[in-house]
Fold these 2 entries.
Entry 1:
Amino acid sequence: MRVVNDDNAQGASDLLTILITFLLYGVALWLWWQQRSPLYVLALAAGQLSILLNPFWRLLYSLQTIPSPGSLLAVFATPFDIVASLRAAWPDTLPALIIVLLYSCRWWKPDLLTGLLTYFVFVSLQLLFGLLGLRDPAPPALAGDLPFGFNPSLLAALMSATITYGLCYVFMTVQRYSWPSMAVAILPMPLLFGGLVYGVVGAPLLVGQLLPDGEWPLRIGLLLTLALSGWCVAIISAGLQRLGQAM
């Protein structure tokens, strides 16, 4: 009975997320007409494309041993899930789009302190989305028990917020591009940031999970991953500060 209730709750959550996606597409189309810019529609479409590598990242973060070539090939043969893509359209992109809208209205000015505060708001929103079941768990949430009692859901929120923070900078940078240039810049960007954050920033943690002498490599891997994540946030904050100085 409990399994049935959990399935019903998940189905209701998925339906709500997809309804929010269609509503946001309607708002994005209205903003396209209002601002003569397809940025918001392109950002949501880019969010949908971001799931292309999700099976690969999910496999890596759930591993405890080195995967076989067959399991890797099976992951890349996973068909595109349109329903999952609709659920993925906005959790990473919407917070960034809200900041871009505030920026275009002169209600948000990028500087170092404001940028860092915005990043922590993004982390809080990612935790909230996960708590309410409005997004599929980010790949780091699938990691096993982490050292120091660190919560995998918190790690997932930190890494997802880093992606959102990077998207925020990109959206601000390209909002005056021509439409074709804007599409080329925006559509692959969640995939690229996903590769940077889950692949490069998360690499020390992934290596630590696979090493046989488990505890110390995993501790070092987690600390390095957190340090790299902080470095990414610092670089993006510096970029936002330069944008603010150019205003």
Note: The chain has one domain: 2-246.
Entry 2:
Amino acid sequence: MTAGLYDYLVFAHLLSFALWLSGAAASSLAGRAAFDAGLPASARSVCLQLRYAGQVLSRSGLACLLPVALTLLLPGQHGGVPALLVGLSWVLGLSWLAFIWVPRFVALPLSDRMMLGIETGFCAVAAMIALGIGLPSVLGYGPLRADWPGMKAVLGGLAFTVTGIMTWTLIPHEEALVEGKISKWPVATALSLGVLALFGLMLAAAWLGNMKPDL
């Protein structure tokens, strides 16, 4: 059996999920080790590099998620996302990827807070697109079917929303938290709840995508 374009897109969709979640987990674990004063400097340096690599992979997976997902939802048996909106999602995704990878090769005149702000903006636009498609679909106004496709779009929009909130409000405090410069409450609790919320949303989306229930 020969794989077609749809099969490759499904694989890319799953790979985006895997990169996003596994990269985030690896970055978090490496970050805790990188700021552990009990480790030798050489080991902490390696952990810092691993932390940054995990962040890049995670953000790259997140940037690819929306355009690949919407391409899979072009007009067909599940309804159809307008081609113009799919094209705009690819512009968003490719711009996001450029923003992630260009600083690896060229120094940008932007502060860390500005970089986080831009990243949050990408998350916000992706969330608006996904929720703008999903909520009307769930209510029966299209463009997708009201059952699992619409619900999955809503879950994706909520995941982008949670990611954007964490990026802007919590991630800047992660290093200070690990180094013990600030109280573990409420930042650590909020980070843990955010991660649990993301995994819950992604598990629900994965279940809908695989089981395809007629809700």
Note: The chain has a mean pLDDT of 83.
